[in-house]
Design a protein that fits this description.
Blueprint lengths: L7 E2 L5 E2 L2 E12 L2 E12 L3 E5 L6 H8 L7 E6 L2 E2 L5 H6 L2 E3 L12 H6 L10 H6 L3 H19 L15 H14 L4 E5 L7 H18 L2 E5 L3 H7 L2 E6 L2 E6 L1 H5 L2 H8 L5
Parallel strand pairs: 5-10, 5-11, 8-9, 9-10
Antiparallel strand pairs: 1-2, 3-4, 3-6, 6-7, 11-12
Helix pairs in contact: 5-6
């Protein structure tokens, strides 16, 4: 694959900047099993970067490395030009990294509004006592955070369900609420783990539109795992392909779809 310049403009007029995250020779083991085997790739400012591969390829493990949940035994993770040490989840969030999960992780008994408000926890600076009395700085902070959440709710067109308990919502709307919670954190890097899983065609179209809008209007860099190849090829600027923990392809959607190793992995055929 040809190396990309420091910054460039996509055919649709978006600017892709320099490297945000650089994963160098990542190897991750669970006991004697290598989930990831010596993989390197980068994520660039303003792009939509897809990670694809058959089931068991190691995609979610790689997303967990990016998010700091897993620490690889070998290799280095560089974020915004600095080598990243092992971090706790709240430290990762403070770096401007947010994510959604393959299995929805929402508070089912809480309203949509309250669920999305949990995405603002990293922006709440006042102590528990001041928050309890809701006065002065704590009151101003609450008002500011609620206003930010309301903007996200409007952006994702979920105003009509803002007071509805999440447990009552259909699956597609729950996925949108989870996206809203991640966006409420105002991330610079958004990680999406199978955002279209289990959705019907109409729900996928809506989610695809929102992902493109997040990238375009907020300038958010996005890395996503997705099995729907039509979605991946339509949304992504670049695609990295994994199979049995190895990287077998990396490039633009056109380069990846014409890569014989990728074709073999998805079709399950040998190539001489």
């Amino acid at each position: 694959m040809n190396a990309q310049p420091e910054s460039f403009t996509t055919p649709d007029g978006r600017t892709i900047g320099g490297t945000v995250m650089d994963l160098r020779n990542i190897t991750l083991r669970f006991g004697g099993v290598e989930a990831i085997k010596d993989i390197s790739f980068d994520i660039r400012e303003g792009e939509i970067r897809a990670i694809i591969g058959p089931n068991g390829a190691g995609k979610s493990s790689m997303l967990n490395v990016i998010s700091g949940f897993y620490v690889p035994q070998e290799g280095e993770v560089w974020f915004r030009g600095a080598k990243r040490a092992p971090l706790k989840p709240y430290q990762v969030a403070r770096q401007g990294i947010a994510r959604t999960f393959q299995n929805i992780a929402l508070f089912e008994g809480m309203s949509v509004l309250d669920n999305v408000m949990t995405g603002r926890l990293g922006h709440m600076k006042t102590g528990m006592f001041r928050q309890a009395v809701w006065w002065g700085k704590a009151e101003r902070e609450e008002v500011e955070n609620r206003a930010a959440v309301e903007r996200v709710i409007d952006f994702l067109e979920i105003q009509s369900i803002r007071k509805t308990p999440v447990g009552r919502l259909p699956y597609g709307l729950k996925k949108r609420v989870e996206l809203a919670r991640a966006l409420a954190a105002e991330p610079s890097l958004l990680l999406l783990d199978e955002p279209m899983a289990g959705m019907n065609v109409e729900e996928k179209e809506d989610m695809s539109r929102f992902i493109l809008d997040v990238n375009d209007e907020f300038g958010t860099t996005i890395a996503l795992i997705e099995h729907d190849m039509g979605v991946v090829m339509d949304l992504s600027d670049r695609v990295v392909v994994m199979d049995y923990g190895r990287k077998i392809g990396d490039g633009t959607p056109d380069e990846v779809r014409n890569n014989q190793d990728v074709i073999d992995a998805y079709l399950g055929v040998a190539h001489d």
